[in-house]
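Quick one: co-fold with uracil.
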Amino acid sequence: MYLIILDSETDFDGWRQAARALALHHIAPADVTWQVQGQTKDQLPPGLSEAPGLPPIETESTFTVPANFIELARITILHRDDGRFALLNRLLWRLKADHDLLEAITDPDVTQAAAMAGAVQRDVQRMRDLVRFREIGRDQKAHYAAWFEPEHHIIAFAAPFFVRRFADIPWSILSPDVCAHWDGHAVSFTPGISRRERPAPGHLEETWRRHFQPDRLPTPDALVKRRRNLHEASILEPLLVDAERWTGGRISPRPETTMGRKATSDDLEALREEAAHCRACHLYKDATQTVFGEGPKSANIMLVGEQPGDKEDLAGHPFVGPAGKMLDRALEEAGVDRKKVYVTNAVKHFKFVPRGKIRLHQKPVTPEIRACRQWYEREVSVIQPDLIVAMGATAAQSVFGKITPIGKNRGRLIDLPDGRKALVTVHPSYLLRLPDPEAKALEYRRFVEDLKIAAGLQKKAARAA
Ligand code: URA
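Sure, here it is.
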């Protein structure tokens, strides 16, 4: 029996080195026990108190495994299940004999690893969604802190997202496993705070002070080392795409299209869930979340905007900020029932540049619109609207698949190649930006007139139903 002791719960390099050596020595996974440093000897299996060293490798022999196994293993190792090291070792051992093992989607080991990778990925997303920083005093300077209890070992892995998202403010994420700190220059990690000491609502500052008096913060030397760790973590982050591929594509295959039938809520939910992990362009890096379309599955009108704004990015819903209010008003005046239309955006992540505490909207460019078009197409395929209303140039570019001027095309029904109708109009934000009140009122009236075409169609469909 062999005992392998890893440096930490997330010691991927240690696991990889050991698993490779074990396989080269033909030591079967059943003869190996995996532990993490710090686990006491009384936790060792009976009869295993010493760690026998591996004999030297006699040959230069080596073997290769598919790159996607390494990717899968990097994510799976963050799962909290104690059996993950052995599971991955078993997969590696079996891959030596069967290079295509990962294609066997009903294999219990493959299924289990993929499910674990999916759970880790969902936990990372949950952390991105739920972490809310609160301002707390730290000497003279403000500091922000949040408490988060992850299900898996994801804090270091997820930290780069918060660094990018909150680069300008010093923050700490406290958790039972490990605490992450950002001082504006580097990330550092300190031991976790036990669940027993979990801060009561409104008492985060006390917990923070108890654990992180200035003299207990990491030394500059430690910061240098940890900065390197952060870099590693940011290299790992794109691998989440692969975990998605594993869990989405293999374990629970989802229909690519509904082929002409009306959507079920499952179709939409599956799509929404998949889009939540989209990495097709870089915009996901700074945005809080994917803002997917919303509305009833039976909608026969789809409204398409440009991209979520600041408010939508935080709320996770389309058109809930100032442009949304303007849209609601115009829809009501035109006689369109918003509750019965599906509202979405050409681009599903908020693009912005930080300016102090403000996030300034940036117009998406063609590669970003193209990268995101798959979601629009799949929404159309699921919802099957009769009419698609493109609000503004970005939406029109996505709907028609090419740059389409608004002025020349607005206010009339246009045939789309798939038999649906499209209507082009201005974006409500354009109206908000118009400085001249008279021009604003006039343009608003024109917008309402355009929407009345949609209202007519909605009424016709209601009568036919
Ligand atoms: N602008 C958009 O195009 N979409 C939104 O969801 C909000 C503002």
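If it helps, The first strand starts at residue 2 and ends at 6.
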